[in-house]
Amino acid sequence: MKVDLNLLTLFLAVAEERNFRAAADRLDVTRSAVSQGIRRLEDSFGTALLLRTTRSVRLTEAGERLRQALAQPLSDIGTALDHVGAERSPHGLLRIAVTSIAERFLSGPLIAAFAAAYPEVTIDVTVTDEEFDIVAAGFDAGVRLGEVIEQDMIAIPLTGDQREAVVAAPSYLATHGAPQHPRDLIHHRCISWRRAPNVAPHRWEFEENGVPFDVAVQARITTNDLRLMLRAALCGAGITFATEETFRPYLDSGELVSLLPEFLPPFAGFYLYFPQRRNMAPKMRALVDHIRQWR
Length: 295
Description:
By secondary structure, this protein is an alpha/beta fold. It has helices spanning 5-17, 20-27, 31-45, 61-86, 103-106, 109-117, 170-176, 226-234, 244-253, 282-294, and strands at residues 50-52, 57-59, 92-98, 121-127, 141-145, 154-157, 162-168, 190-193, 204-208, 211-215, 219-223, 239-243, 257-259, 266-267, 270-274. The chain folds into three domains: 5-86, Orthogonal Bundle (Arc Repressor Mutant, subunit A); 92-160 and 269-294, 3-Layer(aba) Sandwich (D-Maltodextrin-Binding Protein, domain 2), CATH 3.40.190; 162-267, D-Maltodextrin-Binding Protein, domain 2, CATH 3.40.190.290.
């Protein structure tokens, strides 16, 4: 049997109010609309649901059975709709896939400030350099360099332009000297980074007189862990290459020395990206606003 579900809501209002006018006021419709709706519903079932006089409304046995059958489900639906409406305040689990080289996002203060501002949001950050579909994997958003983000994603700047840096510890340079040109790196001990075991190490890319080129260094140490790469360089194990932001505290302290900066032009920085802007979940909107203010 096919029944207009709106008529069930109308019937339940009459059954609970025991008055057509009160039901009409409750639903913000006319008394005539209520009367006609009840008549259509009774015609659909082929039986009377209400006994009405000019002074009162009473349920028939069939009407009482229908009222009991509808009361709990419609109440549950109302509760569910209230919960959906409550989604307007930021809360729930926010899953973010972040590249390991996004120092600004992973350094701590940005996430700590967001967590403090939105205590009802639980943050789950997966640090990964694998390239995959964040939507299919169940993530709300990702953080990557702008050049590797898919065109169908919305991207919000997390940083300004970035620059790669070639660095070494003073102890290494004291023993082995400093390269004067990127091609000199093939004669040095180098520490390289790869994002996964089954892919080639990250290329050391440079530019000279507007012409880009890369150098195939002979890495003595290769790792997918930026922390190991950094620590090995600090210990004088060799020359390494990553975003300048990764090395900034150690360059400022003198524990590392910048090499070949004239061959390293800026490039597009890191972005928070996600699949859609329309009807964005409040937790996601809160993160976007937080990042915009943080910049």
